von Willebrand factor type A domain protein
Amino acid sequence: MPPFTHRYRDLKRFHLPPLVLLAGAVLGFPAETPARPSTGAFSSFDDPAAPKTPLDYFNLIREHKDRTPRNRIEELGQMKTEDALSMLKRSVDEMEGRWGKQYVFSAMRFFMDDPELAPVAIKFAEGAALRRNPTEARAAAGAMVGWGEPAREVLYGVAADGWDEGARAEAIRGIHDLLKERKDGVALRIMLEAFDVPTSGPATLGVEVLGLFRSEEFFREIRKFVGDRSAPIQRLLVVLDAMGTHAAGVDPVVDEGVNDVLEEGLRHRDPVVQYRALLAVARRGGTKAPREVTKLTKSKDESVKRAAIIAALRTQTRDPSGAGGKGGRRIDPLELVESDESAVRQAAAIGLGDRGDEEALGALHRLLRDEDWRVRAEAIRAVIRVRDRSSIPELIEGLDRAEGRFVGDFHAGLVQLTALDLGLAAGRWRIFWEKESETFEVPSPKVVAKAAADRAKRKEDSESAVAFYGINVLSDAFVLVVDTSGSMNAKVGKEKKQTRLDVAKEQMAKTLNRVRDGVLFNVIPFSGNARPLTDGLEPMDEEAREEALAFIEVLREAGGTNIFDSLSAAFEDERVDTIYLLSDGAPSAGEFVDVMSLRAEVERWNSTRGILIHAIAVGQDHPLLRGLAADSGGRYVRVE
């Protein structure tokens, strides 16, 4: 995980004056790199009277270049004359930046319904897209995506044979349907050589398209790509995810081809790639895991080791004769319970949950008392999946012992197995179980969900509890990760006097004022980068509270939305067990901005950490936040 870029506490070490400290907290250091400009990216100037002729428009563009208002460029295109097209072609060279050029190319779309001029415009843009000038090539390809049907074949050619990788990736955005229709060698080459997330489309699209290639020849090419150690990691991950969509046992050719591809992924040096290949093995089913799975059960990377054990356990469960492919040794989850490695015991909990028999449940119940909280968290999730009444008294005893966030975890387990909410005190649950244990039947998840919805209508969370946006703060080691991007300046409420960030600051202050001394905490505001209050968690006391409140008070809205780096910063401290993540928009900065890719990477980090991620979506539903909460067992709420 990348290191975060700036900590508020770091500034204090240099004994900077208060005003400089406040500026650092407001602005963030270092300065953020500007994101892609909007359609209004040109800086304003006194707009002259409207030009009359194509030459007038060209002279305007030549004078002001990239500062030319876009509406003037559009007006030139809307003239739809041969002279207008000629002036647009000349205007491309007058623009200096990518977006100025792209706006000019985009204005050529008005000629697409002209049988004589459309081919001229398309040929000109095609030449630019194939040129060895990245700025112009990407501008042309990006603009042609908006030209519709007339430009599709040209875009297909650019995606297949363009010189610039960025232009090829842009071109793919306009040919999604063609790639799905053709499913030929050229289409596969385009996907393997040029598909870029998110420029070409979301990772889900890449998975869908790559899942269509099912011949022996295609699998050979895919295997060769995965075996190329210089292949881009994000593209590799999309390929491996696509392999996981092929159900095992349906087609022998597909089975052999997928296993060959996954073997290459499992042999990759990067644990991120190994982990994703292991997920594909476990997801697709079947009775034989690739032989590399057994080797990875000894990996030094905890997330890989855990995933390898789970993959081996699940394949051997489907095939009692053995596991791990040829030479694989059958793994007994009951033996794994005794391991001195946390990641192995976590995997054991999952394997025991998959078995769900009486012996497995007995071992799972022992893991509810494990010394490592991450193992306890996995065991709670496993007994919830099994849904056996014998787990209820074990969860009650766990609730009685629990501290910090595990009060909430054991309580949640009891709610899931009973559809009741008798509070956080074990005594009431014991009384209930003494009365009902002999005849009680565990309700279905559907009944549990309905009961929870009914309770929510009758009663909000207690106002006396420490909470953040209504989500109780039970943890003794938590982080508030809060979006401060430019969009957080949107006005909210009936009177529209406060911004989204104003409300968030009030919520943070309310939470921190009520957290008891000794609790470990941190605050990580983020926009284009992450700007933690401190280097890791620090214990709450009066001085820490005052410093945190002062830090929060001067936060301002600016920049993009870098959810990846902010979560990376939150994960850096091994003591963290709960994260509260608030954001109002999709990720726009950081190593991962595609929703599927970012969610998968965080799931990998968290596979051995067991951190609860509670998510607060501001303004609208947020699929990424919803997914992060669901993956970790946290709560998801949407607020205005």
